[in-house]
Amino acid sequence: ASRDARRTGETVHFGRVFGLCVEKGSELPVGDKGRKFKYRCVFAGNSVVDQSWEAAVFQDLGASPSTMAAAKLVDAFACLEGNDGQQADAVQAYPQATFIGTKTWVALPKEAWPKEWEGKYQNPVVLLKKALYGHPDAGGFWEDHCLKRLISIGFEPVGDWGSLMYHKGWNLLLAVY
Known about the structure:
single chain, about 180 residues, alpha+beta, five-stranded mixed beta sheet, three-stranded antiparallel beta sheet, 4 helices, 8 strands, about 20% helix
């Protein structure tokens, strides 16, 4: 892949994905249902190179972080008569977004290799197709994906706060973080 990119003048990136396993709820008693292991594939954003094995340069998309003022506004809105407040987490947020940056090839951890790769390859790479935690531009890809989805169902941005959305029909104020 790097030889082809150098030959054609294309910029590509090479990185690796590693597995991260943590125990959620480890402070709970053994046997508690809230105690479980969670495994996540993470992009190693600190060691990415380009087709010439030089340090990769990223788009620096960044995400619009939810501000303290936006959070306080949502809290105040929830306290108004007839309103309510909730907090929720998007399940596997980043991988919902398509990876749209510089073509990136990644080495997978051996535990993620298909059985047919064993003994056949030494260090195979695959094309990254979804935004992964750890990639410097993943937050921007996720935010773009999320906001497009919200707008498609009737939400509108509130002022210049990219992370604050309002739906008139549902009278719903939403801070995306």
